[in-house]
């Protein structure tokens, strides 16, 4: 039987679902008070101090450097979980919100991950469809010159990834986000090696700003880069919608599956023909 660890990244103490696979990790433990029963991300080899700018990647890095003898590894957020209950995930909305109480009152379900990952290489969220390319979308919401520095660094440090970067970012309007995944350790190890080599060089050349949103630059970039990695390595992806528990929820937050599919088709049409 495989050793499976799905770590839940959290920067504060919250009630979490219980499952033998789950490992709660405190993000940014080096700069916050410790949380009881959470694995701090500042033990062993770590980048916990970088949490304000690397976000959940400090947990990712801790797991990569410190977990041993793990076969299948995954990352969840304390407010974002894969929803494996959907019968037709390919036709489901990318996410739906649920009250925290309802979420915690139901038993969290995983499929047979060993069997699932014998058919697929990686489990990722459902891709979002934009009306513009992913490169343009990054520039619209973040700082475009930072993105071009990222491109330059990839050209210098791993030029073999540039065709995948151009295909998935410059010439595509669909991308997975959230920095969430479940995969074999070998893919996690290879992705982590490539990702942090790139991001640490970006950090050296592009220091974070004082803006509380744009300062999370390296986390935003990594959300896009997992798409590049999967394309370059031709990984077979199983896209699964997300379930997001909220303390306060109203019916207007969730859209129907039909509405979601129509919006994707509409955005695709706009992107290709406008």
Q: Explain this structure to me?
A:
This protein is an alpha/beta fold. The protein has one domain (80-273). The protein is built from 10 helices and 12 strands. The strands form 3 sheets. Strands 3-2-1-4-10-7-11 form a 7-stranded mixed β-sheet, sandwiched between helices. Strands 5-12-6 form a 3-stranded mixed β-sheet. Helix 7 packs across helix 9 (217-232) and helix 8 (185-205) crosses helix 9 (217-232). The protein starts with a strand and ends with a helix.
Strand-helix topology:
Elements: E1 4-10, E2 22-26, E3 39-40, H1 51-54, H2 57-66, E4 72-77, E5 81-82, E6 95-99, H3 100-105, H4 113-119, E7 122-125, E8 128-129, H5 134-141, H6 144-157, H7 162-170, E9 174-175, E10 181-184, H8 185-205, H9 217-232, E11 237-240, E12 242-246, H10 257-273
Parallel strand pairs: 1-2, 1-4, 2-3, 6-12, 7-11
Antiparallel strand pairs: 4-10, 5-12, 7-10, 8-9
């Amino acid at each position: 039987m495989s050793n499976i660890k799905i770590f839940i990244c959290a920067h504060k103490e919250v009630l979490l679902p219980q499952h033998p696979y789950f490992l709660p990790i405190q993000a940014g433990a080096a700069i916050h008070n410790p949380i009881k029963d959470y694995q701090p991300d500042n033990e062993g080899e770590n980048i916990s101090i970088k949490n304000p700018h690397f976000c959940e990647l400090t947990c990712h890095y801790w797991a990569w450097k410190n977990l041993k003898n793990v076969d299948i590894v995954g990352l969840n957020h304390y407010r974002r979980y894969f929803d494996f209950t959907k019968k037709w995930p390919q036709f489901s909305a990318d996410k739906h919100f649920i009250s925290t109480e309802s979420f915690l009152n139901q038993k969290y379900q995983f499929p047979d991950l060993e069997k699932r990952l014998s058919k697929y290489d990686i489990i990722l969220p459902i891709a979002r469809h934009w009306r513009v390319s992913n490169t343009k979308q990054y520039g619209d919401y973040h700082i475009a010159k930072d993105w071009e520095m990222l491109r330059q660094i990839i050209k210098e440090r791993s030029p073999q990834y540039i065709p995948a970067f151009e295909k998935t970012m410059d010439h595509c309007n669909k991308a997975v986000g959230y920095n969430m995944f479940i995969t074999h350790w070998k893919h996690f190890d290879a992705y982590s090696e490539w990702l942090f080599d790139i991001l640490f060089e970006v950090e050296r050349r592009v220091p974070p700003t004082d803006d509380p949103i744009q300062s999370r630059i390296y986390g935003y970039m990594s959300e896009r880069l997992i798409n590049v990695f999967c394309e370059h390595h031709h990984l077979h992806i199983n896209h699964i919608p997300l379930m997001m528990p909220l303390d306060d929820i109203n019916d207007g937050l969730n859209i129907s599956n039909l509405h979601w599919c129509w919006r994707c088709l509409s955005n695709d049409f706009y992107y290709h023909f406008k």
